[in-house]
Amino acid sequence: MVKQPIFLEPVFKERIWGGDRLHRLFGYHIPSEQTGECWAISAHSNGESIVKSGRFEGKSLSYLWEHHQELFGNRTEAKFPLLTKILDAKNDLSVQVHPDDHYASKVENGEPGKTECWYVIDCEPGAEIIIGHQAKTKQKFVEMIETGQWNKLLSRLKVQKGDFFYVPSGTIHAIGAGVLILETQQSSDITYRVYDYDRVDPDGRTRKLHLDKAIEVSNIPHPDNATAPLVNVYEGASIVTFVRANYFSVYKWEIQTSLSYEVTEDFLICSVIEGCGELKTGAGTYPFQKGDHFLLSNQIGRVEVEGKITVIVSHP
Fold first, then answer.
1. For this structure, is 21 an active site residue?
2. CA–CA gap between residue 272 and residue 255 (Å, rounded)
């Protein structure tokens, strides 16, 4: 039985739109001041999390999934199903869309599709996201893309700290400059770019667009995917349920003093976005702080969390 939390080492990705807030706000050692992505909990081959300490120190998350399924409720998926990221958008991300499982299985060598969701950790005043579009028919959608009517086509929303957005596959979307988000998603690295503001890289090259695929997989018209958070208040803490959907459920643990929680899910993915505290299990006491990411196995049973902490928690 594994009663300890499994702390994981993130992987960092430089991006043309990235910045340095992952270092400034979380203290991470990032590769440059254009670091856009922290792959916090990942078993994807493009960036694997490694266990920091304990019995499985030095092992990859995919190794645990393949060789210690008992930690994860003996689920049947071939690969670890989720990926948690923190994204620092110093500049606008490209306007993009992701395919669903059916399309990806046919076109992307067995890679799954990508449904995701965003929790806004922080943002600059006036920051925006793009989510959805105004075209009512595929013909109009294609026409507005071909004629560059981006301001008319794309739906923009102002955001603020604490906002949550559910972004199913097929949703046209983009994270705007000045937004720092935690993203929970299917474990997939497929992105179809629709528009990239005619940007060029340091060598003067534009980034590749994927218009044919994007047009094929986009939801037209754009459906309303808004979710209604459900808040449960306890003595010393509250738990906000943001979404319970096909691929994941996502929560926010807002702990003022303490929270007692029985892990009945197959496993929990936890990302500490504010504060510090201690996690107590049958095996001992484990300190943690802002920027830590860990797994709680279903073997752990009841956990006691103490401190003033905000944690984004998810499970398949």
1. no
2. 11
Q: Could you give the CA distance from residue 266 to residue 259 in angstroms, rounded to a whole number?
A: 20
Confirm whether residue 98 is marked as ligand binding: yes
* Catalytic, out of 21, 156, 193, 244: 193
d(CA 207, CA 96): 12
Place of tokens 């669903």: 100
| 67 annotated among ligand-binding-site residues | no
pTM: 0.96
pLDDT in tens, the chain (316 residues): 889 999 999 999 999 999 999 999 999 999 999 999 999 999 999 999 999 999 999 999 999 999 999 999 999 999 999 999 999 999 999 999 999 999 999 999 889 999 999 999 999 999 999 999 999 999 999 999 999 999 999 999 999 999 999 999 999 999 999 999 999 999 999 999 999 998 887 788 888 999 999 999 999 999 999 999 999 999 999 999 999 999 999 999 999 999 999 999 999 999 999 999 999 999 999 999 999 999 999 999 999 999 999 999 999 9
Residue 128 domain flag = yes
Contacts of 297 (CB under 8 A, 6+ apart): 2, 6, 71, 72, 263, 267
102 annotated binding-site participant:
no
Backbone angles phi, psi at 13, to 5 degrees: -125, 125
Query: Which residue segment(s) compose the domain that 280 sits in?
Result: 230-315
* CATH number of the domain encompassing residue 311: 2.60.120.10
Q: 169-194: buried (b, 16+ CB within 10 Å) or exposed (e) per residue? A: bbbbbbbbbbbbbbbbbbbbbbebbb
> What's the domain count of the chain?
2
